[in-house]
Design a protein that fits this description.
15 strands; Dihydrodipicolinate Reductase, domain 2; six-stranded parallel β-sheet
């Protein structure tokens, strides 16, 4: 039996990925509604060999819909998700609008699939950087409780959307041609440059991305006792985020034990070739579902072999967004 699905924000980078992943995974669909803002209404989009016309999203768009996948931005999620729920749809929302709402489950299927059962019509998809960190860190935490987690992220242009990806490509051409650099979508020049993640800086000096990672990981793990601190940076990579993660465990643990745990973990792939200095790169993860882990080594600054460093790379548009949402939808079925 199929499902009636709506995809909201279909013309964006994540919206396009929703369609690709629904098709790849052969998600059981009876009917699909393709929704976006008024400026995209009327565009033609092909899904599973059939051409669809993009409809303007309104509060009446969700009649008869079972599952609505949202990636239309926080303001539009707040405006339209409650209307979708009223018609009987379950919303899987990719924005930050509902993530920290105590009544809304925040789910990474490899970590806390059980939380889906508690939904009241809306399930939140976590921040992309949070998902990519949580997939490999959770199985380690289950095996040996983590006391402290220090994350530095190297975030691709894809995290700022399709327009940012296109602008970074344009900037690269402008720099190489000796022309002035265009910064209409991105706050600063990203080509051949990097800068503090382009989200609002809070009163404590942390940007919103850093704060999200900390709060969301606590909620997903169901454990606020872990000390977490983050530094999030935008780097000139088109697609796939990278993260340097330093972990302090309760008990001693070795790189060999970490590797063994991660080799058995769902959604994780290992690239750890010390001899050739070959570890995960964005080009490995782009277009792929798994989070790639490598450069696994002891943190020799932490006594009693309780510290480990890992390097993680994941496709922000897939596991960091669309794939995670579709996996949640599959669990709803």
């Amino acid at each position: 039996m199929g499902t009636n699905v709506a995809v909201a924000g279909v013309t964006g980078a994540v919206g396009q990925e929703f369609l690709a992943i629904l098709e790849e995974r052969n998600f059981p669909i009876d009917s699909i509604k393709i929704l976006a803002s008024s400026r995209s209404a009327g565009k033609k989009i092909t899904f599973k060999g059939t051409e669809y016309t993009v409809e303007e999203m309104t509060e009446k768009s969700f009649k008869g819909v079972d599952i609505a996948l949202f990636s239309a931005g926080g303001a539009r999620s707040k405006q339209f998700a409650p209307a979708a729920v009223k018609t009987g749809a379950v919303v899987v929302d990719n924005s930050s609008a509902f993530r920290m709402d105590p009544d809304v489950p925040l789910v990474v299927p490899e970590v806390n699939a059980h939380a889906i059962k508690k939904h009241k019509g809306i399930i939140a998809n976590p921040n992309c950087t949070t998902i990519i960190a949580n997939v490999p860190v959770w199985p380690l935490h289950k095996a040996n409780p983590i006391r402290r987690m220090v994350v530095s992220s190297y975030q691709a242009a894809s995290g700022a959307g399709m327009a940012a990806m296109l602008e970074m490509q344009q900037q690269a051409r402008e720099v190489l041609d000796g022309k002035p650099v265009t910064c209409k979508v991105l706050k600063y020049q990203l080509a051949f440059n990097c800068y503090c993640h382009d989200s609002k800086i809070g009163p404590n000096g942390y940007n919103e991305e850093e704060t999200k990672m900390t709060k969301e990981t606590h909620k997903i793990f169901g454990d606020t006792s872990i000390a977490i601190t983050c530094t999030c940076v935008r780097v000139p990579v088109l697609r796939s985020h990278s993260e340097s993660i330093n972990l302090e465990f309760t008990n001693p643990i070795t790189p060999e034990e970490v590797t063994e745990i991660l080799m058995a973990a769902p959604g994780v792939d290992i690239i750890d070739d010390r001899e050739n200095n070959r570890f995960p790169m964005p080009t490995d993860a782009s277009g792929r579902d798994d989070c790639y882990v490598g450069h696994i080594r002891q943190d020799e600054s932490i006594p009693d072999r309780r510290g480990i460093n890992i390097w993680v790379v994941g496709d922000q548009l897939r596991k960091g967004a669309a794939l995670n949402a579709v996996q949640i939808a599959e669990l709803l079925l």
